[in-house]
Amino acid sequence: MVRQCVHCTSQRAVLRRPKTAEPLCRECFYAALEQEVHETISAARLFKPGERVAVAASGGKDSTVLAHMLTTLNARHGYGLDLFLLSIDEGISGYRDDSLETVKRNEAQYQIPLHVFSYKDLYGWTMDEIVAAVGTKSNCTFCGVFRRQALDRGAALVGADKIATGHNADDVAETVLLNILRGDVPRLGRCANIITGEDSPLPRVKPFKYTYEKEIVMYAYFKKLDYFSTECIYSPFAARGFAREFVKDLEAARPRAIVDLIRSAEQFRVPGGSGSGSSSTGGKAVALPQPGNCQRCGYISSQPVCKACILLEGLNKGLPRLGVSRTRRTPKGPAAEAAAAADAAAANGLPAAAGAAADAPLARGQAGTCCAGQGSCSGSSSRQPAQPCCAGGTCSSSLPAADGAAAASAPAAAAAAAADTNGGGGFAYLQNKAAIASHPSARQLAD
Ligand SMILES: [Zn+2]
Ligand SMILES: [Zn+2]
After folding, report:
1. Which ranges carry the tRNA(Ile)-lysidine/2-thiocytidine synthase N-terminal domain (predicted)?
2. Where is pLDDT greater, at 315 or 286?
3. Backbone region of residue 391 per phi and psi (left: phi > 0; alpha: psi in -120 to 50; beta: other values)
4. Is the pLDDT of residue 376 over 50?
């Protein structure tokens, strides 16, 4: 028996919608998805008429579908937006040059102008040159820090009012989960925001916040959209590793799990704060540091000099580890790599989350620091299990970080702070595949 589309009841169903399990025909699927995104945009008032909106375009499925859909909805509903594509060329031969060709075709297909800014222009280095200098272990730290700034700078240079990114519901659910696992109360309170940087000159919006990744893929597939699907050659592992797989498992058991995770975070309120400027520690409100500006480049930064400038200084002086790791003796292994990435991402122009450190679970301590009998040492390697204090040996303290500024420099804080900027790369205390898969920049950067 041929199953009919449950919406129009006249056409044959060609798919079962992942989010609702409804059998739909192609046209009804397009209509349902487009209407949902339109309702998301309208309900959250993402755009105002006349705004100039940069669509962050990587050539991948999310940003390609976003460009297609915003163009369609802008015309259909008269948003009055001045849309353009904004791409960052990291200078990765065999990857970015191919995906940029896709974006160039998108420019013609969607009839919206494309602006490309390269790392070489903005920083003087391509990623290929950076990898040649630093190797393939910390390269993603550089890429992640540089890309976030590059999008903002590029958008500002071409007079954008807003940046729209292709982050989908799966991405947001993963971030919610990572923040729960980290005990990062302040970020949990705001990671599901559909608009970030609302009071900054260049807010970022996520029109696909409730759109399932599977449906984006289906939409692109059935519409035969032209997108690029190869992974970055420097990031062979799946982004966000463990959390990503877990969200997929939850979805398989119950498709609503993704949207429920997002709704949970939306309901979350930080006691004593708005969820964006303070955190609570045992009921006490703690003010987060207010971001200032980098003394060198002027980019928003909670430190006197922003992370990009520190990384760049290291590269230019031939000291590529500068700014990547803060510990003198860097332990080896995937967890250590994750911690280093976290350290590097921590100061990426965002509040360093002093409050978050106190809330964070025990993380790998700093190598070489004994807990002096106050806690349980985790051994000289981050992979060794916790054990009684070594009483002054060369162990790693597993004490929770103290309050305030000191806490912000501890790896726990760094791991926590990395959450928003690098897609979970700082997940140091999960010494397993999450750490192996940690990758600061595999996904487009977002809050
Ligand atoms: Zn139909
Ligand atoms: Zn700077």
Report:
1. 53-230
2. 315
3. left
4. no
Q: Which residues of 93-108 are buried (b: 16+ CB within 10 A; e: fewer)?
A: eebbeebbebbbbbbe
Distance 102 CA to ligand 1 centre (A): 31
Please give the distance, rounded to the nearest whole angstrom, from the Cα atom of residue 32 to the centre of ligand 1: 10
For residue 14, which ligand has an atom nearest its CA? 1
CA distance 231 to 95: 8
pLDDT tens sequence across 301-348: 888 998 899 999 999 888 777 777 544 333 444 443 343 333 333 323
Return the structure tokens found at 27. 């046209």
**Judging by beta carbons within 10 Å of its beta carbon (0-12, 13-18, 19+), is residue 116 exposed, middle or buried?**
middle
Tell if the pTM clears 0.70, that is, is over it. no
Q: How large a percentage of the chain has pLDDT more than 90?
A: 38
10 CA distance to ligand 1 centroid (A)?
A: 7
**Cα(433) to centroid(ligand 2), Å:** 33
Give me the residue spans of the domains in the chain.
15-267, 278-436
What's the gap in Å between 220 CA and the centre of ligand 1? 18
CA distance 62 to 69: 10
Q: How far is the CA of 22 from the centre of ligand 1 (A)?
A: 11
User: What protein residues have CB closer than 5 angstroms to ion ligand 2?
Assistant: 294, 296-297, 299, 306, 309
* Fold of the 15-267 domain: Rossmann fold (3.40.50)
